[in-house]
TrEMBL record, chain A:
Name of this protein: Cytochrome b
Annotated positions binding heme b b566: 115, 216
Annotated localization: Membrane
Pfam family, one: Cytochrom_B_C
PANTHER family (UniProt xref): CYTOCHROME B
Binding partners and assembly: The main subunits of complex b-c1 are: cytochrome b, cytochrome c1 and the Rieske protein.
TrEMBL record, chain B:
Gene Ontology cellular component terms for the protein in this record: plasma membrane
InterPro entries given in the database record: Rieske_2Fe-2S, Rieske_2Fe-2S_sf, Rieske_Fe-S_prot, Rieske_Fe-S_prot_C, TAT_signal_bac_arc, Ubiq_cytC_Rdtase_Fe-S_su_TAT, Ubiquinol_cyt_c_Rdtase_Fe-S-su
Places the protein is found: Cell membrane
Keyword rRNA-binding attributed: no
Database matches in Gene3D superfamilies: Rieske [2Fe-2S] iron-sulphur domain, Single helix bin
Membrane-topology descriptor: Single-pass membrane protein
The organism of origin for this protein: Gluconacetobacter takamatsuzukensis
Enzyme Commission number(s) from the entry: 7.1.1.8
Entry annotated with the keyword Transferase: no
This protein's encoding gene: petA
Name this protein carries in UniProt: Ubiquinol-cytochrome c reductase iron-sulfur subunit
Ranges of biased composition (kind: Low complexity): 9-24
Annotated TM spans: none
Length: 412, 225
């Protein structure tokens, strides 16, 4: 009658104490140890690998400041602007919370672009990390939507006209456009209903991002990190335990990032605040110079460079969608651009074109800017659809290092 | 870009700090402690604006004085205005009501007939508990547990109590106050109704929240609201 496997019998193996007791039932302690302490990480990660940790921390700061702002915010067309002014002027430390949140949005998008560039440059999207890449792109789309919805909330002139222009973009979709615009807006023009929807969308998406980050990091821990050489670690000598090596490297990166963050919050608020948005929304008067936040400018530049309303919309959405195809467009077995001379040069041109498109967006694609914008749009898509698939053919006779530890020091 | 890790070793066993010699182990412990302390201080400092924002706002800016024009208020009637989020009763007392306030038989039924407790500014510590006898100004919050007393100005032989001279009756636990806000004996409320700081820039204007020129009274110093 003895039942050896039964849990009813006191387990002699079980260690005493609350932590082992909990860990035997819900292995949070050992999972944390496995994934964040002993976790083997390539020994050669450079500073660009700090940005995932930076993004995670900035996300938590955004959620915390966001909750405290939401407590004091009124999501009505009549009350929104005044409630934001009250946060800035009357709520104790409200100006600081708002400044951190607004600066955080810019810093988040900046870190996101660097993080994405890192993945493209070192081929982190290639097998076996395709799902990791795709979850990252879903995060990019979600974060962009969240940032846009958040920008509408103060209900200043830029908020209002930003929402209005986005509505008109939806309107450009053939057939269903006008109906869809009316439906999404909940009225003929942005108003109470749209503002309330933007507020809920902003909060729900922000927390959904946190959930998707969980999936993103889970996927990362299945495959492990890629590295600047783009070769898989060959043995224990090629890796280091996450703690203390990468906890301290991430901490250093975070401190430097926090310093830059604080400089913007305390000394350069004009960089992230738009003066025009300190005027209350006025549906009867469009501001003279309407442009989105800097992080949307490259896509705004694409929108304006294409000489068709719907075509522009397709191109700027397509600029993000094409990234989803990258793992399958790139046929080269080599990951890191360090060993792909043509691809490396192409990546340089891509970055130049992306920044250039930002300036084109700023200057409304007028005169010379329009020509530059069109060339940049063509390059952007040619890079992914033509150069990326073809560059593999140019890579002959390339010898990859034989393990990370033996590769020694090299340039990027 | 360079490789990371201070130790250029290929043996994974020496990657672990636990296998260091005792001397470096101690130094590492100290550095760990220092790092944790600095991190803890940073987190504590960062939480300050969050906690600070939960504090009630800047009262000075949010609570300007309130001007009330009483020229249209007929004798015997009362209006209620909001000040600091509380109801303030402004009463135009009739000559008969003022006469009753001065009766010695009434004073004998009151807990604090001469306004000894600090429940009013010094300029209202008189038999009518106001600047001029005709206008009464009191905060309409029962000093028992905070209900708003009902205005029942008409004298009555039986209701709400025998020989009622006119005043306020609290609906919650039956405290009674006369028309100057003085509390009756035998009721749960311990103090007279508070008189807020106020001034009368003209004979028919009451400015609640501002003291008359030359006086200085801080409402937060009163016994109990
Ligand atoms: C909310 C935004 C995001 C957060 C919080 C986040 C977080 C992280 C973290 C913590 C890591 C590990 C550390 C590192 O390698 O830097 C990581 C790796 C990675 N992320 Fe993200 N990420 C985000 C968005 C994105 C986006 C937009 C992409 C691009 C499509 C992306 C693609 C990747 C890839 C490919 C890796 C593995 C890199 C490698 O090992 O080489 N992530 N992410
Ligand atoms: S609150 Fe007025 S009697 Fe209790």
């Amino acid at each position: 009658m003895t039942d050896a496997g039964s849990r009813d019998r006191p387990d002699e193996q079980e260690k005493a104490g609350l932590v082992p007791w909990l860990d035997a039932r819900l292995p949070v302690v050992s999972a944390f140890r496995r994934e964040y302490v002993d976790y083997r990480t390539p020994r050669n990660l450079n500073g660009l690998w700090n940005f995932g940790a930076i993004l995670t921390v900035v996300l938590l700061v955004m959620l915390a400041t966001g909750i405290f702002l939401a407590v004091n915010y009124t999501p009505t067309a009549a009350g929104a602007f005044a409630s934001i002014e009250a946060i800035d002027r009357q709520l104790p430390s409200g100006w600081l919370l708002r400044s951190i949140h607004v600066t955080g949005a810019s810093m988040f998008l900046a870190a996101l672009y660097i993080h994405l560039f890192r993945g493209l440059y070192y081929g982190s999207y290639k097998a076996p990390r395709e799902v990791l890449w795709l979850t990252g792109l879903v995060l990019l789309a979600m974060v962009m939507l969240t940032a846009f919805a958040g920008y509408v909330l103060p209900w200043g002139q830029m908020s209002y006209w930003g929402a209005d222009v986005a509505g008109k973009a939806v309107d450009a979709i053939p057939g269903v456009g006008p109906w869809l615009e009316h439906f999404l807006q909940g009225g003929d023009a942005p108003g109470d209903v749209s503002l309330h929807r933007f507020f809920i969308l902003h909060m729900v998406l922000a927390f959904a991002v946190l959930g998707v980050v969980g999936i993103h990091v889970a996927a990362l821990h299945v495959t492990g990190s890629n590295n600047p050489l783009g070769i898989e670690p060959r043995g224990a000598g090629d890796t280091l335990p996450f703690h203390p090596y990468y906890t301290s490297k991430d901490a250093l990166g975070l401190i430097l990032f926090a310093l830059l963050f604080a400089v913007v919050v305390f000394f350069l608020p004009d960089v992230v605040f738009e003066a025009e948005n300190f005027r209350p929304a006025n549906p009867l008067h469009t501001p003279a110079d309407i442009e989105p936040e800097w992080y949307f400018l490259p896509f705004y530049g694409i929108l304006q460079s294409v000489p068709s309303k719907f075509g522009g919309l397709l191109a700027s959405v397509g600029a993000i969608l094409v990234l989803f195809l990258v793992p399958w467009l790139d046929r080269s077995p080599i990951r890191s651009a360090r060993f792909r001379p043509l691809y490396r040069a192409c990546m340089g041109v891509l970055v130049v074109c992306f920044v250039l498109l930002g300036f084109v967006g700023r200057h409304h694609a007028q005169g010379g800017w329009m020509i530059a914008g069109r060339i940049a749009v063509v390059y952007y898509f040619a890079h992914f659809l033509v150069l990326l698939p073809l560059s593999a053919r140019t890579e002959r006779g390339i010898v990859l290092p034989d393990g990370i530890a033996g590769a020694g020091r090299r340039g990027a | 870009m360079t490789t990371t890790g201070p130790l250029e070793t290929d043996n994974s066993a020496t990657d672990s700090p636990a296998s260091d010699s005792p001397a470096t182990g101690k130094r590492r412990d100290f550095l760990t402690l220092l790092t944790l302390a600095a991190g803890g201080a940073g987190v504590a400092a960062f939480s300050w604006p969050f906690l600070d924002s939960l504090r009630p706002g800047d009262s000075g800016a949010a609570r300007p004085p309130v001007d009330v024009d009483v020229s249209k208020l007929p004798p015997g009637q009362q209006i209620t205005v909001v000040w600091h989020g509380s109801p303030v009763f402004i009463t135009h007392r009739t000559p008969q009501a003022l006469e009753r306030l001065q009766q010695a038989s009434l004073a004998a039924r009151l807990r604090d007939p001469s306004s000894a407790a600090l429940q009013q500014p010094p300029y209202a510590a008189n038999w009518h508990r106001s600047i001029v006898p005709a206008y009464g100004v009191v905060v309409g919050i029962c000093t028992h547990l905070g209900c708003v007393p009902t205005y029942s100005p008409a004298p009555d032989p039986t209701t709400p109590v025998a020989n009622w001279p006119g005043g306020y009756a609290c609906p919650c636990h039956g405290s009674k106050f006369d028309l100057a806000g003085r509390v009756f004996i035998g009721a749960p409320a311990p103090y007279n109704l508070p008189v807020p700081p106020y001034a009368m820039p003209t004979p028919t204007t009451i400015r609640i929240g501002a003291n008359p020129p030359g006086t200085d009274f801080d409402f937060s110093s009163i016994q109990q609201i």
